[in-house]
Amino acid sequence: MATVRVCVCGDEGTGKSSLIASLVKDVFVSNKIQPVLPQITIPPSIGTPENVTTTIVDTSARPQDRTTLRKEIRKSNVILLVYSDHYSYERVALFWMPYFRSLGVNVPVVLCANKCDLTDNTMPQVVDDEMLPVMNEFREIDSCIRASAREHHNVNETFFLCQKAVTHPIAPLFDYKESNLKPACVSALKRIFYLCDKDQDGYLNDSEIQEFQAKCFDKPLSSEDLGNIKLSIAKSVSGSDTAKGIDLRGFLQLNKTYAEKGRHETIWIILRKYHYTDSLSLEDSFIHPKFDVPEFASAELSPAGYRFFMDLFLLFDKDNDGGLNDQELCALFAPTTGLPQSWVEASFPSTTVRNEAGHITLQGWLAQWSMTTFLEPKTTLEYLAYLGFEPPNARETLASALKVIKPRKRRRRPGRVERNVVLCYIIGAAGAGKSSLLDAFLNRPFDGLYHPTIKSRRAVNSVELQGGKQCYLILEELGELEPAILENQARLDACDLICYAYDSSDPDSFSHIVDLRRRYPQLDDLPSIYTALKADKDKTTQRSELQPDQYTSGLMMSTPVHVSVTWNSIGELFVALAEAATNPSTAFPKSDEPPPDRTSLYLALGAMTCAAAAAFMIWRRSANSA
Prior knowledge:
Blueprint lengths: L2 E8 L5 H10 L14 E3 L10 E6 L7 H10 L2 E6 L2 H17 L6 E5 L9 H15 L3 E6 L8 H13 L6 E2 L4 E2 L1 H14 L6 E2 L1 H12 L5 H14 L9 E2 H13 L3 H10 L10 H4 L10 E4 L1 H14 L6 E2 L1 H7 L8 H5 L14 E2 H14 L1 H11 L14 E4 L15 E7 L6 H8 L15 E8 L5 E8 L4 H6 L1 H5 L3 E7 L6 H10 L8 E6 L14 H7 L6 E2 L7 H13 L16 H27 L1
Parallel strand pairs: 1-3, 1-4, 4-5, 5-6, 15-17, 15-18, 18-19, 19-20
Antiparallel strand pairs: 2-3, 7-8, 9-10, 11-14, 12-13, 16-17
Helix pairs in contact: 8-9, 9-10, 12-15, 15-16
């Protein structure tokens, strides 16, 4: 916010204009001043909250000036309501506050008891007798203060409260009626506590507190101050063990104390350091940073991203069983909005590797995030923000956890592509064994019962390529969405490989593939592998114009790979798929030979032309000299 606009309201004769003049002149102006001062703009100075410019607008309470008053109130960010005696105090509740509400404005109000030099009442008495009752009745009153323009008492403080009511509002943080932090504030502070508790032991130890202090306030906390904070928490929170550190209850109590003592700007400093907005939601630019993936390219986790997710897994695997159970997953995702929606829709963790107890393993965890980054990088960035990823270099952004991989335009060019995550569509007739193939990919036991696949299903796992390099392979069975996906060019562009799968024991299975390739000629633009599943059963002749071996030979491609999910060698198929996806030129139909590479010929012709030109120049010089 660049400007705070203060509208000064109140009955005639309460000293509104004198307060403004005393602020500007820094002394009381004894000469008669005009009834309504012109608008005043004060540039930011040392101590101004959030370095804002302040505009102060004086108003008149006369009925004939009511139209102007309404306009100024609606344009303001904060209202300074001034009273000076019993009559004008009674008018606060009887007229002014209901009037503000009738205008439908939703801005904080600072209540100022002016001309305190004319009364003998002490501050506690004024607060108890006057201010608290009206504050309890009208929740929009942010704060109250006694001031005197004549004695220049609390004048600067009055307008500072107005600035602070806008830059550091108390309303979103604290409920005076309940005398508690509001739920949204508690939720934000819980997330901050979670992020600061680096070892996840439930306590902020001294080192974690100092790190939090440096991040939020750019200065260390002295041992004496830290001791006083712990002592204060020990007195106000029963059963707290400050010897171990500050637990969540103590952290929330500390911030509640700040709010009760009018130091809510401290809470706002903390919240804003952790990218919270005035509505206590995370900044959109923080959870959705700019990250563009060019056409035909894809996104992957960078080494820093993989390291973050690996450390997160190890930190929350409290029982060290190599898997995250439901309680551990719940604790891990506590500072987020829950599991990503795409994970829920895909019945996570069934999409990746689990241990015997059904809990996701580290291998499966990294594979799942690799797939999420590949398919929806913005979701990964959002959860990196929620979970507290910090770039290794202060000048880098959240996007440093990801990297963009070169476009996959020239698939037919020989050579390996630099991709660590690849997507393969498994296409074939119903009952061909595609779902069992995905189960085998995730090391699940074979289920002989047939379960038709309705919606598309994905599985992701790591595969070790020849030479020891590891990549993540995503297998997707299209289900009943197969025709729609194959007609969607964008979905085909995102695919690295097609696996045509058929049941070698079903005579009608292969014809489905032939029909698909005929109906969708665009599939020829993708590398592909043919696979004969259920090879443990008796092989049958396919009801097709050409048998699978003849059909693939006619395309000058490798004959179908015969496999069974019940064989131990099934893993070799997944390696073959990953190899074909990362070396796509080896998996294209060869019916149309690529044009010969004439680069060497062009280079040779160019060299001959240059040599001939040089010889001609030498001959010409010799002829001229003769």
